[in-house]
Amino acid sequence: MKYRNLSIWRNIDKPLLIMYLLLSVIGYFIMYSSTFKGLHIQSDFWSANYGKQLIWIIITLFAGFFILLLDGSFIK
Questions:
Q1: Mind listing the pLDDT tens digit for each residue in 51-62?
Q2: Cα–Cα distance measured from residue 32 to residue 50, given in angstroms and rounded to the nearest whole number
Q3: In angstroms, rounded to a whole number, what is the distance separating the alpha carbons of residues 73 and 36?
Q4: Distance between CA 8 and CA 5 in Å, rounded?
Q5: Over the stretch 38-50, which tens digit does the pLDDT of each residue have?
């Protein structure tokens, strides 16, 4: 019986992942700093632009991880 190596980290393009994370973090902080309205605590964090952007960053991380779990022959 032939066993496959199911290591996800072995097949990841690590420089591409690092660049994605770095650009996401930098872009998020730029958006947060440009829409910051003072030192008061905002109760509507998730409805503000930076809250929505954080939601999309989290969704894309989960979607990317799910795609990595798919078998390559499934797509063919």
A1: 899 999 999 999
A2: 5
A3: 46
A4: 9
A5: 766 667 777 888 8
Rounded distance between C-alpha atoms, residue 32 and residue 26, angstroms: 10
User: In angstroms, how far is CA 37 from the centroid of its own chain?
Assistant: 26
Spatial neighbors of 14 by CB under 8 A, at least 6 apart, are none
Residue 31 · residue 48 · CB < 8 Å: no
What's the whole-model pTM score? 0.72
Q: Which amino acid is at 55?
A: I
Q: Which two tokens stand for residue 23?
A: 């650009």
Q: How far apart are CA 10 and CA 51, in angstroms?
A: 33
Q: Show the tokens assigned to 57.
A: 């960053």
